[in-house]
Amino acid sequence: MLACVSPKTGIVKTLPLFDSLRLMIDDFKPELVIIGNRVNIFGVNQNDDAQARQCLGILNSLIIGCKTTIIMPSHVSVRGMQSDGTSGSVQWSNGCRQRLLLKRPDEDETDSNARVLEVKKANWGPTGLQLPLHWDGVFVADAENIKKLSGAERVQREKNEKQKAEDEFMTMLSKAEARGINVSANPTARNNAATIFSETAGCKFKGKKGRSALAAAMDRLFEEKSICAVPYGAPSDKTYRVERVKK
Q1: Widest Cα–Cα separation across the chain
Q2: In angstroms, how far is CA 197 from the centroid of its own chain?
Q3: pLDDT tens digits, residue range 95-153?
């Protein structure tokens, strides 16, 4: 193990193997280091937020100090298989710069050697990108899937993703207005638009990531004057609902 938690203090402390690893990395200067499975190298409570953050802090000290990149594998929980591909504390995902999920394709795929590598998180980059793979002694990507996106292609992809979020926000807003449901732009309101929409059946943007995308879309729509905040109810309540601007 690289580190374990002290049961008395709750502090995660490094072990001699970590010091040996640091010396090896510092001497060899690799661009990439792949370490063991998370549960095998950290003797901590995998569901504890504080302990997870400390473990990631220990790895970050290697990344920054030795100017390298670290990949840390982990197994997906049963719940994670049905949702976002995670396990344990959410801090294992929140504290890393990027997270990839290697999974089997859709259920209708009959090739048992087929896999998909999906980008689940990427700081300052698009998510949801998928790379089809095939097991042939090693995982191999088809030649046409290896093409790297140019700067212009990345910009266009991000623009398309933003447009999809804005279109979905306007669609959900129309449905809410048709049902007489008032939604608010206030992020702390119980009827916050992004929160309500992401939890509504039929919405294409679900969960925390979907809520964040819809909230960002709402901000852009306000700036574009496509939507506005209109007071409703008793004047003393000072409540506002989001409405589309009639042009």
Answers
A1: 70
A2: 19
A3: 899 999 998 887 655 677 888 888 988 887 788 888 888 887 888 886 655 555 566 76
What does the block give as tokens for 222? 């306000």
Give pLDDT, residue 176.
Answer: 94
In angstroms and rounded to an integer, the radius of gyration of the C-alpha atoms of the chain is 23
Going by the DSSP 8-state scheme, the letter that residue 70 receives in this structure is E
State how far the Cα of 227 lies from the Cα of 200, in Å rounded to an integer: 20
Query: What CATH architecture is 152-244?
Result: Orthogonal Bundle (1.10)
Domains of the chain, residue spans: 1-94, 97-147, 152-244
Residues 6+ apart with CB under 8 A from 59: 35, 70, 72
Strands 227-232 and 239-244: antiparallel
Q: What is the pLDDT of residue 146?
A: 54
Q: Can you tell me whether residue 147 is helix, strand or coil?
A: coil
Token digits of residue 184: 């608010």
Q: What secondary structure letter does DSSP report for 225? A: T
Q: Residue for token digits 């100090």?
A: 65
